[in-house]
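Technical annex B. To support the medicinal chemistry partners, we prepared a structural model of the target in complex with zinc ion, based solely on the information shown next.
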Amino acid sequence: MLLLLGVRGVATLLGVVRFRCSYCGQDARQEVLEVGNRLTLFFIPVLTFSRRYVNRCTSCGGETRLTERQARRGLESAARGR
Ligand SMILES: [Zn+2]
C-alpha cells in the first residue's frame, strides 16, 4: 500500500493591528499571523502542528514572536478600538 505523506508550512493572517514598530520605528500596520506546519495525506491537509504566532511589520518585515494569548488579546483590543 502506498501512502503519500507530506509536510508544508502555512501562515494564516488572523488580523491587522497598527502601532509603532520596534525594528523600524514606523507607525505601520502589523500583521498577526498563525504559522505552522501542516501534515498532508495524498495532498489533503490532515493536521497542523508546530503552531506559533508572530507579529510581522508590513513596513520592514520585522517579526516578533507572540504567545497565543498575546495574539488573541492584541486582536481583541484592536477590535475594541484601543
Ligand atoms: Zn517595521
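Notes passed to the chemistry partners:
The mean pLDDT is 93.
The pocket of zinc ion is lined by residues 21, 23-24, 26, 28, 57, 59-60, 62 (CB under 6 Å).
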